[in-house]
Design goal:
The chain contains 5 helices and 14 strands. The chain has 249 residues and is α+β, with helices and mostly antiparallel strands. It has a single domain, classed as Pseudouridine synthase (2-Layer Sandwich).
Length: 249
Amino acid sequence: MIERVAPLSEADRAFVRSLVLYEDAALLAFNKPSGLPVQTRNPDDRTLDMLLAAFAKSNAKRPRLVHRLDAQTSGVIIAGRTQPAAAALSAAFAGREVRKTYVALVSGAPFEAASGEINVALARYRPKPELELMRAARPGDAKPQPALTRWRVLASRGTVHLLSLAPETGRMHQIRAHLSLAGRPILGDPYYGGAATLAGQAIPRLMLHAERLSAPHPSGGTFSVYAAPPADFGDVVSAAGLDLAMSDV
């Protein structure tokens, strides 16, 4: 079956190509901006998946995304350019061979340690029929999922903290839910208790960025991709009186 590829404007083609961090014959790595959905139920929505039509082959098959980022999360996301490459990358994710590092700006009480982990099983639930979120698994929840997130404090000022985060599992909203459960919700997160303002100014986005990803390469060896936090992220970090340069250590 040939995939339907929606026609793209030249502006869309230029836009998605501007997001490319790395490419070779097997894979593409993108720096997804906050606000761009990866996929939606509507195939006509402007999503990263739809924009991959810019890289479609002559048989109309486009690269296949092998993991997800929330729409409001920015940063590194990869796609396989061929079916074997996509399968190999998907297997690496399933086998927990992929290492991901995020940075987040959170609020809450000062940390008592410089690093630690949050090991809390999560389960999906619907506070509204149209909204699916994650919570700490409860007795009777369907399909509770083990989830582990490692964290490290990069910088703090009062009750605002810049964190480096390494999710060891890949559950939906894992980092967002875990930090909320730990009493340190991500700034700009409307679903998990994040503050909407900082120093009287509106926070324009979810303050979560996928900074690094390393994984086995489908052709052998490993690859690693880095995406610097974007300007809108850096502006909020600076407004908090913190140094974003700490995220690159």
